[in-house]
Amino acid sequence: MCERILKALALSVGALCPMFAAASGNLVLDGSTFDHFGKVIGVGGATWTSDYTYVNYGKDVLEIEGRITVGADANYVHHKDPATASDWAHVTSEDGDGKMLIVNGADRTKPDPTDPTKQVPLTVWTSSFLSPLSKGQTYEFSAWVSGVHTGSQAVLDFSIGGLLIKKDYLATFNKWTQVTATFSGNDLKSFSSANAIDMSIIRSGNDFAIDNIQVKAVPEPFTMLLGVAGIGLATRRRLSK
To answer: What angle do CA 60, 66, 69 make, to 5 degrees?
Structure first.
C-alpha cells in the first residue's frame, strides 16, 4: 500500500515537472537587456517595439522628444536640457547589467486604434511572452522606473493583454522605484502582449528610465513543486509510523 501511494506521488510530480519548467521565471521576452528592438515583434528577431523613435545609444541622442534608446547612463544621452540648461541625472541600470530603456517623453499623441476620432499617448514599450499566459492563473507584474529630469514627472500606465494593471504611476527623479501589480489570466482580453504608456505629453521634463520588466506566475511553479514534494514527504512519514 505504501509503495503504491509513493509511486503515484512520484509519477504526479514527474508529470508536472515539464509544465513547471516551461512556466517558471520571467515570462516577458527580453525585459531586462532590451537587445532586440523592431517594428514588429517576432520579425527579424525583434522582442520589443515602441511608438517612439528608436536610436542607437550615443552621446546626446535623446535631445529630441519622442526618442528612446537602450543604454547605461541617462546623462550620456541627454547632457543638457536646452530649455533649462540642466543635466539629466546619472541614472544607471537598476539590475547592474548596463542596459535599460531611456526615454525622452513625447509631446505628441496618436489616433486611438479603437476610435480614430480620438487621440491617445504614444506607447513607450510593447513586448510579448515566452509562452501565452493562461486563464485561471494568477500573475505578478513588476518593473523598475526612475525619473531622469527635474521637471514634470512622467505618468505611466502599464497594461497586460488589454487589461490596465497599474494606472498613473509617477516616476521619481533620480531614484529607482518598483512598480508591482497582481492580475488574473481570467481578466485578460488577449494573452500575448504587455505595454507601458507614458500618459503625460508635457514637453519639459517627462523623461525617465525603465528596467527589469517581469511577469511571473504566482505562486512560482518551483514553489508549487516544493509543495507537492512536501505532501509526498509528509505522506511517507505518516505511512512509516
So the answer is: 50
